[in-house]
Amino acid sequence: MSELVFFTGTMDCGKSTLAAQVNHTHKSAGRSGLVFTRNDRAGSGILSSRLGLEVQAIEVTNETNFFDLCLEQLQTDEGLDYLVCDETQFYTREHINQLAHVVDDLDIDVFAFGIASDFRTDLFPGSSRLFELADRIQILQVEALCWCGRKATHNARTVNGRMITEGDQVLPGDTGENPAEVIGYEVLCRRHHMAGMTINHPEN
Ligand SMILES: [Zn+2]
Description:
Blueprint: E1 4-9, H1 15-28, E2 33-37, E3 46-48, E4 54-56, E5 58-59, H2 66-74, E6 82-85, H3 93-106, E7 109-115, H4 125-133, E8 136-139, E9 154-159, E10 162-164, E11 183-188, H5 190-195
Parallel strand pairs: 1-7, 1-8, 2-5, 2-6, 6-7
Antiparallel strand pairs: 3-4, 9-10, 9-11
Helix pairs in contact: 2-3, 3-4
Bound molecules: zinc ion.
Residues 146, 148, 150, 188-189, 191-192 line the site of zinc ion.
């Protein structure tokens, strides 16, 4: 019985590390898989984790059709048993629909990894579709802490260290890491996210 599983948490929860590990575990068991990512901070076609682990991956674009790709792969000698999909917050709702068909119609396991909500606390479209369709949702143990010491449960976008709450959900070239030293990201507890208090500007 194949499954669509959604592993989710905040930005620093270690989900890419887990994605690499899940891939390794299944590969070691002799299963055949494909790894996908989108806008990984390490660059196109690479799944990277904060621990420095890197895995070769297929870069997802708006034109990607998971169902067709899987059908093709099924016809090769290697076959296909599972997909590891990282950064699924950047996938479209249509991508997630395709992944559900991959599970149901092709009997392939799909392990999806993504951040649930953006810096405004709104769900990403890909993530909200995964909440709607997944067979199983696993909330990752929060490892990151807010500057106050509470568990960091919310993503904040900062400009020069000050939290902002308006702007596009995804910035061009925005890979979760600071592109221009001006815009950055920080994980906060809900209390300090609501109050807009960051590590450099706790006075807000
Ligand atoms: Zn806090």
